[in-house]
């Protein structure tokens, strides 16, 4: 049980009451992945309107700091890159600043190139180029952000709408 528990990572869009209960109920042995996708409250409200309004960035960062302090485990930040939306150098600067300003231990930043969905495409979201993803990663690294990776492997399954972030029902037969 001990070794299995150490390998559990819970992913969240930032449900602060649940992060707080995890901090209280599992003070060790649980890792947290935060699907952040935006370095500012304003952009979070565009990309994750329900989560961002219910659990504002400032309160979310407080919960993340409390989790890290209690568990001794840095949070993994997951960030889907959307061409022209959150993949510019200014966004990388803001993300690095957020991590530093909030004093996050940060286990790392996992950059995930957007995988098209019907809903995302109708909202105008597009896949960033590999070069843009690499430039974003390089910028974060140059600003001292630890363990920045790009998950290009998440492209697998795009053609069948089963890649990372794509799982959804197209139609009912």
TrEMBL record:
Gene3D superfamilies: Aldolase class I. Keywords: 4Fe-4S, Iron, Iron-sulfur, Metal-binding, S-adenosyl-L-methionine. InterPro entries: Aldolase_TIM, Methyltransferase_A, rSAM. GO terms for biological process: rRNA base methylation; tRNA methylation. It comes from the Eukaryota. This is Radical SAM core domain-containing protein. One of its GO terms (molecular function) is metal ion binding. Its cofactor is [4Fe-4S] cluster. It comes from Polarella glacialis (Dinoflagellate). The lineage of its organism: Eukaryota, Sar, Alveolata, Dinophyceae, Suessiales. Residues 1-153 form the Radical SAM core domain.
């Amino acid at each position: 049980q001990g070794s299995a528990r150490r390998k559990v990572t819970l992913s969240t869009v930032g449900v602060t009451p649940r992060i707080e209960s995890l901090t209280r109920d599992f003070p060790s042995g649980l890792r947290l992945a935060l699907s952040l996708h935006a370095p500012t409250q304003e952009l979070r409200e565009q990309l994750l309107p329900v989560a961002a309004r219910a659990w504002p960035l400032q309160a979310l960062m407080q919960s993340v700091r409390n989790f890290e302090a209690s568990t001794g485990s840095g949070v993994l930040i997951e960030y889907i890159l959307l061409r022209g939306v959150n993949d510019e150098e200014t966004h990388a600067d803001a993300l690095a600043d957020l991590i530093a300003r909030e004093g996050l231990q940060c286990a790392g930043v996992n950059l995930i190139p957007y995988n098209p969905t019907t809903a995302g495409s109708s909202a105008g979201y597009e896949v960033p180029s590999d070069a843009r993803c690499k430039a974003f990663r390089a910028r974060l690294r140059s600003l001292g952000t630890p363990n920045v990776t790009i998950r290009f492997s998440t492209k697998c399954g795009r053609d069948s709408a089963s890649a990372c972030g794509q799982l959804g029902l197209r139609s009912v037969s």
